[in-house]
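Form 7-S
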Amino acid sequence: MTPARTGIHPARGASVLAVLAGAWFFLSPWIWGVYWNHTAWNSWIVGALIVIFAVSRMIHPRATMLSWFNVALGVWTFASPWIFGYVDGTGRFVNSLCIGFIVFCTAVVGANSERESHHVTSTP
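Output:
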């Protein structure tokens, strides 16, 4: 048995999670007390871009390229501790890994959801 079609695009849930993760990443320099560090700009810029792309995807559900941008930002976020040299095992390091993983996964789900939204489902 297949679920009934609800009219809600499958990318919406993934985009909501990406918005939350991006907002958290944006705020994280203040939370971890490193807002004075030059690497905080990475969190502010990337976090804002994640939110912008995810909100844009919710507004334009067929624009899968927006999700692919967030895939790239998820990879960048995951790699950023090594790029900027804060791999000392602190909460900020773990935070970047977790946010990168979450953004990557939600963006891949969002990017692939366009295929799923074309399947016509019905209940017998």
